[in-house]
Design brief:
The structure is a homodimer. In chain A, about 25% of the residues lie in helices and about 30% in strands. Chain A has about 270 residues and is α/β, with parallel strands linked by helices. In chain A, helix 5 (about 150-155) packs parallel to helix 6 (about 175-185). Chain A is globular and about 55 Å long.
């Protein structure tokens, strides 16, 4: 299975231009799955809810999903990308997985970051997963990295690969995603954006360094902070299904929910 | 609050010699809390249960705990160290926190690694905590790092500092403990041993690089792979009680157990 990320600097408030770039990247990348940044159809720094509403789209029948979905069917590839989602009166920071069979899996970010709370609604999704070439692909978005429960929940539900669209502004996440891969023995693909965005006096710089990490914590591919690029790696999903770390240790069988306490799924009566 | 680690190479099967070294380190270190490696009273590579049983001790009334407890009372310092514990017929890979008020908190490692499963019993402890100079000190041991639930459970129960005795043989944990500190906004003190141990044809090399990490993921102190040393840092426990990462985000209030699923404490009915 060939997986890649597309690191670029989406144009603020230009869904049509960003769609052209996403389509070109998907067409040119020799991958089964391409992971793209958070909110890469719209840019990030929304000044208010009206401005967000003007560029938000429905899933799966908005223009970006329809166009990329048709391309996935045409060329037999899958894509995960972050998108501003409109659903009824709701506006969500979402990511969607589109597959060649016409499937669309939508995940709404569970942990909104900072000013996102001013403009997006906050219901969030439980683990969301789709199948690409027989591999289970789970989705998390940007700041979800800071909560170990998100990657853990995806892995416990069988994810082989975690697709992780991001708009990272701090330097910590890339190393932490190595830990997420190690602790769950899953592949992770963090597609971060790059560049600087300035809207209405706000200015944010993004940290790039998108990466693909193996279940053993090895970086199989990584971008520089500033470049726009596609990078790819060949993954064997079977590596993520073997949770063994020694002949006697299996990361899932060795879990001790009986000791973790009720806040983490433990037996409410036991106190080992 | 002044915290340190003591990185050294314990002598196999020599509790008296190791006790002398622990006492000397505690006496000479200008710290409120000294964290020492896993199983540092005995060494690590037990060939069988009889050999382990010969050097295991009771907690708190075995010779090592009695001597170090008296020293803690005398000089007003606290220590965490790994010890082979005998309790009835049971033998446990434990760590104990001794405080100047005569307190002894014992934690039994929840996740035994590889050949430890041949000789130690495996009940494990739920989160264990003690108070040092007003700070809550939680305990985890070595391979517990690989399970995010352990540090999470300690932090959710209020730990300001995680004391982490270790006998690490792989290179991953030190970076992962930066993630543990970041995701929980707690201090962590990993006291790893160094050196090589050879018993009965088995040979294991330990990776050193003990460290003290801040709630923001900064390494406040770190040892080299091979040196024997005490390193210290001044910690302000209040930094670990503020879980805010932006004006709008708090790492604990932002948790979404309703979305994590029943395996991680979620509502068994909800499916967001």
């Amino acid at each position: 299975m060939n997986v890649g990320f597309y690191q670029f600097s989406p144009a603020y408030g230009d869904p049509e231009g960003n769609l052209r770039r996403l389509a070109a990247a998907l067409r040119s990348a020799a991958v089964d799955l391409l992971v793209c940044p958070e909110l890469c159809t719209t840019g990030y720094l929304f000044l208010d809810r009206d401005e967000l509403n003007a560029v938000a789209e429905r899933i799966p029948d908005g223009p970006t999903c329809k166009a990329l979905g048709a391309l996935c069917r045409e060329i037999g590839r899958s894509i995960v990308f972050g998108i501003a989602e409109r659903a009824g009166d709701g506006l969500f920071n979402s990511a969607v997985l589109l597959t060649p069979d016409g499937g669309a899996v939508c995940y709404r970010k569970a942990h909104l970051f900072d000013t996102e709370l001013n403009v997006f609604d906050r219901p969030g999704s439980s683990p969301r997963m789709g199948i690409v070439k027989g591999a289970k692909v789970g989705i998390m978005v940007c700041f979800d990295w800071r909560f170990p429960e998100v990657a853990r929940a995806l892995a416990l539900e069988g994810a082989d690969v975690i697709a992780h669209p991001a708009n990272l502004v701090h330097p910590y996440c890339q190393d932490a995603m190595v830990t997420r891969s190690l602790e769950n023995r899953v592949f992770s693909v963090t597609a971060n954006r790059t560049g600087v965005e300035e809207t209405g006096g706000l200015r944010t710089a993004f940290t790039g360094r998108s990466q693909i990490v193996s279940p053993m914590g090895a970086r199989l591919a990584q971008a520089d902070p500033d470049e726009e690029c596609v990078r790819t790696a060949i993954l064997n999903p079977a590596e993520a299904r073997d949770k063994g770390v020694t002949a006697r240790n299996d990361l899932f069988r060795d879990r001790r929910p009986d000791l973790y306490g009720p806040a983490l799924g433990g037996d409410r009566r036991s106190k080992g």
